[in-house]
Amino acid sequence: MTIKRFGSLGGVGTGGQHLPFSSAVQAGGWLMVSGQTPMTDGEVVEGGIIEQSRLAIQNCLDIMQQAGYGLDTVVHVTVILTDARYFQSFNKVFKEVFGAHPPARICAVASLVVDCKVEVDVTCYKAP
């Protein structure tokens, strides 16, 4: 099995720090996208949970597209919210994006290392 890494030179985190992990890793038809926060060019984009959720998910979708995967290939999503009160609002965005192809999902509440409201990762599969 071949393993292919995307963004392995590392992204840029808050304050311009180098992130020492791949944006995604592909192995045998699977694609695992690292957790994405609502960041653009290494800076958190301010806004409410709706705006931050859309951007975190879009960041995942952009990485997936670079690797040749689409929405219909998403099999699992992990969501971390910083406040349980964000759950319904996040679900609204989630349904907008994944409505036609709902994946399995886990959603948890925890503190994040980055000062934002949400982090999202995805696992995709397509036959090799």
Quick description:
Pfam families: Ribonuc_L-PSP. By secondary structure, the protein is an alpha+beta fold. Helix content is 23%, strand content 32%.
Q: Give start-end ranges of low-pLDDT stretches.
A: none
Q: Give the domain tally.
A: 1
Strand order of the largest sheet: 1-2-3-8-6-7
Please count the beta strands (DSSP E, at least 2 residues each): 8
By DSSP (H or I, 4+ residues per run), the number of helices equals 2
Q: What is the subunit organization of this protein?
A: single chain
First and last CA, distance: 10 Å
Structural class: alpha+beta
- Name the CATH superfamily assignment: RutC-like
Shape field:
globular
What integer is the average pLDDT?
Answer: 91
The level of helicity is 10-25%
Give Rg in angstroms. 14 Å
Q: List the secondary-structure elements in sequence, H or E.
A: EEEEEHEHEE
Second rung of CATH, namely the architecture: 2-Layer Sandwich
Quick one: biggest sheet? 6 strands, mixed
